[in-house]
Amino acid sequence: MSQVLHPIEQKILKTLAEKKNLTPEELASITKLSLDQIRRGIEWLKFKNLTDVQESETNVVTLGKKGPEAIEKGLPERQLLNHLRSLDGYSCEINDAKNYLKNEFSPAIANAKKNGWIEIHENRMMLKGYHDVTPEEKILKTVSKSPEGVSANELEKNALDSLKKRPDLIAIISKKSTLVGLTEKGIDASRTVPDNLDSVLISDASLTHDYVRAIDVEADAPLAFAARSHPLRDVIDEVREIFVSLGFSEIIGNNVQSSFWNFDALFTPQDHPAREMQDTFYLKDIKAGNVAKPDQIRKVSESHKKGWNYNWQSEEAKKLVLRTHTTCVTIRELADQQYDEARLFSIGRVFRNEKLSYKHLAEFHQVEGVVMGTNVTLRDLMGLQTEFYHKMGIKKIKFWPTFFPYTEPSLQSMIYNEKLGKWVELFGMGIFRPEVTKPLGIKNPVLAWGGGIERIAMLRFGLQDVRDLYENKFGWLRSVPKCP
């Protein structure tokens, strides 16, 4: 069955049949179509297997910030050479050369020695050998003559590598290029294109009546990607729905918290490494006014003095931080509302001053839940966690004893990852220590657990790098199925 071609497609086919392989820019210039029309027509023809599109990437070398100065004055070693040539005996004291070249002295003497231009005796240097133009100088001269840059493949590799090590002399830009040609099927199609195409070139509004096109009712419809929520947002919504279905109420707190609620209320000593600048983001030159009720501050202070044997400082507790966990929101809610029984959860962003890697982010989402009651036990906590995981579709679960700063006893939940074929850590959990609850007037035991939602998303989507969740690659976003 013959394919119906748009006038833009016909013009491109006819041009490529005459000129062979061309770039989109060349096609636009020859056909007098806009670049957008050319790109659109190429995609249509590519979908019909009529064009062959070859994409390539090349590194182009241009002058850097210090390049023009190096062209004008010469590289540091050339400046040193010219300085020695201007002196009697072609020699000078090392300190004189250092005063002349200032910050450029070290690279000048190092490269001049490498080139065999100078020799040094005690505190004096003098000229020697030949002083030909170096490969590095040739590259700078070549690049300076081409404002658009020179392909790295055309330049001597060792010299280019040497220039890369020198700050701001050259800049390397990656440029992508596209070359469009016809397939055999496209060559056959081009023979059916009429010669008088000028009357059918569109202005993207309408066609003249000099040329009538048929409509191919069997043509494939274009793919349409409707807007959708981000896969990570889907996981967050799923977690929220599960907690609500288990009878929990959501609480929300600020991203900025005082050190009192983020650390002190959770029995974290004020000299603990986690409170250092390398682990926590502090707000500069600003402190909280009233961090808590006077009775809460007094009892927490006494707890620290008794438990950690140091003088607790109220000014340290007033420092504002980007919260490192959502527990600060939970513990404040329990302290202020004085529940007898409660089922609460919180989902939100938390911040850690960590180096970005495949498993660590400086900002991520954390979910936390607490259950408070007269007779709640660690077995209840394990049962709740098991039910939560089952609702997430995770069937193989086990718990290991572990240590966490503000819960005792504490457990680490482990789930079996079928794709990885091994057990992996997920949520931490435990019962709040008396040193946490008693100073805040919380009378009944509190079961608590929490963890990163990105970790759940990685397991759900089979990702090996947590950063993939935030790179927004359209191919991946479109391929991820919607959460149930």
Automatic annotation (TrEMBL):
Keywords: Aminoacyl-tRNA synthetase, ATP-binding, Cytoplasm, Ligase, Magnesium, Metal-binding, Nucleotide-binding, Protein biosynthesis. InterPro entries: aa-tRNA-synth_II, aa-tRNA-synth_II/BPL/LPL, Phe-tRNA-synth_IIc_asu, Phenylalanyl-tRNA_Synthase. Gene3D superfamilies: Bira Bifunctional Protein, Domain 2. GO terms for molecular function: ATP binding; metal ion binding; phenylalanine-tRNA ligase activity; tRNA binding. It holds the Pfam family tRNA-synt_2d. It is an enzyme of class 6 (ligase). CDD domains: PheRS_alpha_core (cd00496). The keyword Magnesium applies. Residues 343-481 form the Aminoacyl-transfer RNA synthetases class-II family profile domain. Its EC number is 6.1.1.20. GO terms for biological process: phenylalanyl-tRNA aminoacylation. It comes from the Archaea. One of its GO terms (cellular component) is cytoplasm. The keyword Chloroplast does not apply. It is found in: Cytoplasm. Belongs to the class-II aminoacyl-tRNA synthetase family. Phe-tRNA synthetase alpha subunit type 2 subfamily. This is phenylalanine--tRNA ligase. The lineage of its organism: Archaea, Nitrososphaerota, Nitrososphaeria, Nitrosotaleales, Nitrosotaleaceae.
